[in-house]
Amino acid sequence: xxxxxxxxxxxxxxxxxxxxxxxxxxxxxxxxxxxxxxxxxxxxxxxxxxxxxxxxxxxxxxxxxxxxxxxxxxxxxxxxxxxxxxxxxxxxxxxxxxxxxxxxxxxxxxxxxxxxxxxxxxxxxxxxxx
Amino acid sequence: xxxxxxxxxxxxxxxxxxxxxxxxxxxxxxxxxxxxxxxxxxxxxxxxxxxxxxxxxxxxxxxxxxxxxxxxxxxxxxxxxxxxxxxxxxxxxxxxxxxxxxxxxxxxxxxxxxxxxxxxxxxxxxxxxxxxxxxxxxxxxxxxxxxxxxxxx
Lengths: 130, 153
Hints:
The structure holds two protein chains of two kinds.
Chain A: E1 8-10, E2 14-18, H1 25-36, H2 45-67, H3 75-94, H4 99-102, H5 105-129
Chain B: E1 3-4, H1 10-15, E2 31-36, E3 43-44, H2 51-56, E4 71-72, E5 78-84, E6 87-92, E7 96-112, E8 118-139, E9 150-152
Parallel strand pairs in B: 1-3
Antiparallel strand pairs in B: 2-4, 2-7, 5-6, 6-9, 7-8
């Protein structure tokens, strides 16, 4: 085997299937929360409780964000909503066990990209279904 | 046994150092996601090499709102591979989705339509996913180490 030999992996995807229209804001909100902060069964109790509370706040935040997506939403609208979410996320994470990780620029960029991608999906879908 | 298992195809591992795939934003290749029908006759996973594996078995989804070949990302929607720690991670900037859709599916194959349809990802949906006059979205995971849809670590 070569020195520095690599392993490769394929990440897990999530499927949203909604009949008779587009996905609801609550469906998107729960999906995005799951994607950002999964509940690990092996978490110590104090972290688990903090995660549950944080997930509740994140879901409420994303619900509002996805409700703001309209058939007329533009890329600029999505950028503005994403920026608003990032400001709130910083506050929500500040008093949690994940404050340090969440403040790292690379992690923030990854959060931003993930949120933007799904808001774009929601806006795009709204455009094509109404 | 017929079915789909989530995997980074073995063939892709050998194709990367041959520069067969280019995931660079804007200037890279065009990738597509094709869906696997319910109860496929073929087996899809690490040994899958090409979109033709799917079509050769007549295992691609058919139905309203789905066009053969599947969802196409433009090169502008590629996320150029980046290093995070000791890993390389990459993805796409939009999710694959189908609207006005009436069909059922159990998995997907992502392939490079700019490079003879070579497969780069196989995904299992964990069961049958059905929509009727609705929307099916494949939500890509966060592009982070341990989560990214494609990574080398």
